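dumping this here before i forget
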Amino acid sequence: MTKSDAESASRAMQASWLVTALLLYLTLRLHLLPALLAGLLVFELVHLLASVLTGRLSNRRAKIAAVLVLAVLVIGGVSLGTVLTVGFFNHHGGGIAALAQKMADTIDDARLWLPDWLLDILPEGVDSLKSAAAHWLREHAGEIGSVGKEAGIAFVHILIGMLIGAMVALHEAASIPTMRPLAAALTERARKLAQAFRRVVFAQVRIAALNTAFTALYLAVALPLADVHLPLTKTMIALTFVVGLLPVVGNLISNTVIVVVSLALSPQVALASLAFLVVIHKLEYFLNARIVGSQIAAKAWELLLAMLAMEAAFGLPGLVAAPIYYAYVKSELAAAGLV
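structure:
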């Protein structure tokens, strides 16, 4: 490579970093994170399945056909899974609504025996919660009216993102022409981002599955053996897996729900649930370090700091994107020999 070629490649690399940083920023600022995550998910699933299938095919057209079929199946499977999950929480035993009502009733009943210093920070009862909710609804009526429209737009974005992910996977199966320096550098950035997504999300799915398995053993096996039967057990188990896909924060949400619902039976059951969850999550610290840490070489405090900063800057979307963005940035820095 001549000096001129090296300088051109260096400029292309720097330009690709700037373009990628701008695109990642705009993804959050323009509320396109669902589309990005959906596209990456479909791309990775198709790529994972296609790598096994197409490895046995020598004909180029057969490979493209196989990837196309897989893309359709993955999009259909992801869409069906989303619909079934939403349907479960909306209809199964009352779902989230029943769980929220149960927590409100539990807090209301607990006011009879909780100490005064704790009563001061709790709502005065279900009626107080309803009054506050009604007041909030009146003040935000205009915003609530746009929720349905925003949900529809987000759904369209997700569909478009999945289609783009499938098209990229299909394009990868075809012969790729020789690219100019900037295009090649941007392709490398996209590859590293997809790799960061795969490492973080697939690792987090394994962690959420382990957490859900431990929680299911406690709620559906250990407590019934002790003649303790919590209400809405299946809903809490499903909720544990779904929110467990959010690093750190998901565990706090599921733990709070389980402890509050346990409080409906007795303070002793609530303390037992809290003790169990503390012990399990101490064990999970080692599992997290082994699963996530080995994937992106990041400590828990690094992810927490990234999540805190991204949440402050972009809200909930920033919180969700933080582990993926952080893993991507760290992989780029590591490839450049800076960390």
